[in-house]
Structure formats: C-alpha cells, structure tokens
Write a structure and sequence with these properties.
Layout (H helix, E strand, L loop, with lengths): L4 E5 L5 E4 L9 E7 L6 H9 L4 E8 L6 H7 L7 E5 L6 H10 L5 E4 L5 E2 L3 H7 L7 E4 L2 E4 L8 E2 L9 E3 L1 H6 L18 E3 H6 L12 H11 L4 E4 L4 E5 L1 H4 L5 H14 L7 H29 L2 H7 L4 H21 L1
Length: 336
C-alpha cells in the first residue's frame, strides 16, 4: 500500500503527497445506518461485501418501519461478515453509527450511506494512497442521479485529477461554508476510512445530539485533535442524489444543535487564529439559517415573542433577516 513521502507545503494546511509501498493492516468495518432504506440497501451491502479489505459490515436498523433487515440479509454473501442490529427507537444516524462502531472491531472504520455504493476496488485504492501514514483517508465522491442512473458521474469537489493532499482544519471548515450560487460541495459529505485507534485514543464518536452535520462535526473535532487527514480524488464512492433529499429543509432543532457543536469546537485550546476565525464564520452562517427558520416558524404561528427572539442575535444577523424578508415580500408581490 502507498506510503506518503516527500511532502512539500503548498500553502495553508494542504500538503501534496507522493506514494510509496508500505505494509499495514487493511481490515475495515463498514457501518451502514439505515432508516427507510429497503429500496436501496441491498446494493450498498453487496458493494461493501465485494471489497476484500472489508472484515465486517454492520447494518444498524434505526427503528425503520420497512423490511430493511430482510432486504439487507438477502444481499449477504455467506462469508459471515454481515451483522444486523435492530434499535428499538429511532435515534438518528449519529447514534446508529456509534452503535455500529461499538459492535465492530476492525482497525479501520468507515461509513456507507444506505442509498450509496462502492465501485469495485475503492477501499484497496484508498489504502494504496498510504493509509499507514494517516488517521483519516478520504476520496472525493462520485455524484450520480437517481432519476438518471446511466448518466455520467461527476466529482463533488475536485475538477480534473489533482494529487492527493493533506487536509487541515481551517481548509476543511472553509469548504463547509455553503454558497447559494453553487451546488453543494461541502467536505462534510466525505466518507473516509478512519483509524479506530485514533478515534478511541481521543475518545471521539459521533455527536448524538446532531441529526444534521454529524459527519462534519466528527471530522472537525478529529482535525482539531491532531488527525492526519488525507484527501484524494475520487476512488469509487458513489453518492446517489435524490430530488427529495436535495429539497429537504432543516428544522430549528437541527440547526441549533449544529450551531452549538461549533460553539463547543471553539473551546478547543489548540486552535490557531485562522482556525478560530473560519469556525466563527461557519457558526455565524449556521446561526443565520437557524434564526431564519425560527422567524419563518414564528410568523406562521403568529408568535410575536418568537419573532423578537429571532432578531436577538448579532446586528449583522438581524440585517440578514430583514434582507431575506424584503426579498420574500418582493417575490410574493411579483407573483401577484
């Protein structure tokens, strides 16, 4: 497998990498948290079991009302690597993934969404990048559409085939600040292989208070804790975009929990000034989304106290809300 050698800084917290063969343990536990995933999970399970590096596939049924367990079992290859765990109550993807992590033992851990899949050889290619030198090894995602599965896949992040690079906290957080002028390209969507000993040594698990941004939060805390994180071009993780999921709107509780997670991150004593600054930018963006949703809900409920509370944030956030309101009024007037 590849070993990272001869690294040269290219600015900020990115480092270009060259590969060299080394030895190491490639055993991987693939954690698949699922809720209403019966239609797609068989493809996900088969793609994971096809990978020779996979020591175990742990499917965690997050109290799904469909027959997802039976469908997952139908994809078993008879090697004894598939384990299915049923939860009694829905706790969200973070809790389900933590259950899967605790039920597994392989030296590497990775997450596979129940509606995505691997191209053959994806995990081997990640290890060939030099996993022995890293705590997290991630690749860009291939994006495809459920509406047109035969369409050409496109990478989420990279244009072309750049060299693999070391990813630091400031660059990672900056890449998770969304821009309404472009499609979603946040690095929080990545699905790296993660070294179990690093997670356990830093007492890192998914934040079970989160139902939005749980991957972003785990990766950010790992980077703040010193994780060596390699980001490479696409190696074969296929993310299937679905129209319903793209238009989903996040509620107040989800946004507030993510904002609070950023607040907790800002308490890390080892943050550099650039890292602290970009985390503040990310938190400010999430706070604006939270307060906008709070305002929408308050107006619908005709709750004047809640309207006032939505404007209780920073003056720049209140200005953001006023501009959004003016824009919405203009749109409605135009439709009339």
């Amino acid at each position: 497998m590849g070993r990272a050698t001869n690294a040269t800084n290219v600015g900020g917290d990115l480092t270009r990498i060259k590969g060299k063969k080394v030895n190491g343990d490639r055993g991987v536990a693939v954690i698949i948290a699922t809720f209403r995933g019966a239609r797609t999970i068989a493809t996900a399970v088969r793609s994971a079991l096809r990978e020779p590096e996979v020591r175990e596939v742990v499917v965690v049924n997050d109290a799904s009302p469909d027959d997802v367990e039976a469908v997952a079992r139908s994809a078993d290859d008879g090697t004894g690597r598939l384990k299915i765990i049923a939860l009694g109550a829905n706790g969200g993807p973070a809790r389900a993934r933590n259950v899967g992590i605790e039920a597994s033992s392989a030296p590497w851990i990775t997450v596979l969404d129940d509606d995505d899949y691997y191209e053959p050889g994806r995990l081997g290619r990640l290890f060939d990048l030099g996993a022995a030198q890293w705590d997290f090894v991630a690749d860009d995602l291939w994006l495809t559409s459920e509406d047109d599965p035969a369409a050409t896949k496109t990478p989420m992040w990279f244009d072309g085939r750049p060299a693999a690079a070391r990813l630091g906290l400031a660059a990672f957080v900056a890449a998770n600040i969304s821009d309404p002028r472009r499609a979603q390209r946040e690095l929080g969507f990545l699905k790296p292989i993660m070294r179990r000993s690093f997670l356990e040594g830093r007492n890192l698990r998914y934040n079970e208070k989160l139902r939005l941004g749980e991957d972003y939060d785990l990766y950010a805390r790992a980077l703040a804790s010193g994780a060596r994180f390699l980001l490479a071009p696409t190696q074969g993780y296929v993310a299937v975009r679905r129209p319903a999921s793209l238009s989903a709107r996040h509620g107040q509780g989800e946004l507030k929990a993510l904002r609070d997670a950023d607040t907790a991150l800002l308490e890390y004593p080892t943050l550099t000034p650039p890292e602290r600054a970009v985390l503040c930018r990310h938190r400010r963006q999430i706070d604006r989304k939270f307060r906008w949703q709070q305002l929408i809900d308050a107006v619908k409920a005709r709750d004047l106290a809640a309207v006032a509370d939505a404007f209780s944030g920073a003056p720049t956030t209140s200005l953001f809300l006023l501009r959004n309101l003016a824009h919405q009024f203009a749109l409605r007037a135009g439709r009339r």
